[in-house]
């Protein structure tokens, strides 16, 4: 993989350095991921995470994973700015809710199929496998009572 | 007044005032909670997010910030976006399975009683792949268990 440190010094600053009003050097950590024609991208992550924290996170990951890291940080920042209360957790809860519904539908569909192929009656299938309605906990929140839970202790999107 | 400091002010080594924005949501008995959000967002950004919200929504915001920070510390590359991707995949797989089973049911429900024995066997072979085995276990390798992420 090409080392970004070998790039010649660019005459134009990256979006991060423009935003931070500083010189953009040839080994600028942000330059590969925050191009000067995408100013909003850095503005969003700066608002939510801060430049210093983004830098620390990027330093923790391998170079070939930094682009994915930046993309996920930008996504998280966008969602948090759109929904300052729940951020991505809101999306997770919504997807989780959908998953529980699908699991329930699958149990019922399997039961119907079982009765059709003659393995057992519908009621006995549900008697044996009704426990499968209990979907696994995706989010366990031991110390937080403010988020709405359903009866299975899962974070429930309001 | 050190004994009354919230986790944030203890972490930041400062006095905890009576109107501290963090103290209702970062109690002193859970230092990890603030340490995580501080590591990912920084105290200043968390304070701004909380201050911009009505008081009634701040507890939920603090919780979601904590969980997103936790996810990011556990997975620095994808954070909670990784969970979203996994859930999307699980939903896609489950929907696919459901569509297949419903198609099987539709096919069986229109089958007449005069079908041949081999046809019945074929349908049973295909249909049974969606059923649990004798121990009640499904071949649910598409269900990625992430419940232990928050242990």
From TrEMBL, chain A:
It comes from the Eukaryota. Residues 12-113 form the LOB domain. PROSITE patterns: LOB (PS50891). Belongs to the LOB domain-containing protein family. This is LOB domain-containing protein 21. It comes from Sesamum alatum.
Automatic annotation (TrEMBL), chain B:
It comes from the Eukaryota. Signal peptide: none annotated. Residues 4-105 form the LOB domain. It holds the Pfam family LOB. InterPro entries: LOB (IPR004883). Belongs to the LOB domain-containing protein family. This is LOB domain-containing protein 12.
């Amino acid at each position: 993989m090409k080392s970004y440190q070998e790039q010649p010094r660019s005459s134009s600053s990256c979006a991060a350095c423009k935003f931070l009003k500083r010189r953009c050097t040839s080994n600028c950590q942000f330059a590969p991921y925050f191009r000067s024609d995408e100013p909003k991208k850095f503005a969003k992550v700066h608002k939510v995470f801060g430049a210093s924290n983004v830098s620390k996170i990027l330093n923790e990951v391998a170079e070939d994973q930094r682009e994915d890291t930046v993309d996920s940080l930008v996504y998280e920042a966008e969602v948090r700015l759109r929904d300052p209360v729940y951020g991505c957790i809101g999306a997770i809860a919504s997807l989780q809710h959908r998953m529980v519904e699908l699991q329930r539908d699958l149990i019922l569909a399997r039961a119907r199929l079982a009765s059709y192929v003659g393995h057992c009656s519908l009621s006995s299938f549900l008697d044996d496998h009704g426990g499968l309605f209990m979907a696994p906990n995706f989010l366990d929140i031991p110390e937080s009572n403010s988020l709405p839970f359903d009866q299975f202790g899962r974070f429930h999107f309001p | 007044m050190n004994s009354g400091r919230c986790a944030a002010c203890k972490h930041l080594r400062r006095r905890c005032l009576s109107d501290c924005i963090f103290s209702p949501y970062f109690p002193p008995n859970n230092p990890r909670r603030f340490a995580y959000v501080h590591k990912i967002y920084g105290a200043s950004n968390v304070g701004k997010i909380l201050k911009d919200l009505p008081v009634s929504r701040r507890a939920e915001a603090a919780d979601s910030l904590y969980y997103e920070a936790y996810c990011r510390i556990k997975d620095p590359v994808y954070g909670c976006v990784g969970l979203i991707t996994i859930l999307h995949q699980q939903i896609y797989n489950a929907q696919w399975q459901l569509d297949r089973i419903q198609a099987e049911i539709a096919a069986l429900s229109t089958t007449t009683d005069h079908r041949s024995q081999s046809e019945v066997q074929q349908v049973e072979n295909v249909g049974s792949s969606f059923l649990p085995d004798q121990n009640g276990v499904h071949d649910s390798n598409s269900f990625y268990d992430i419940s232990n992420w928050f242990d």
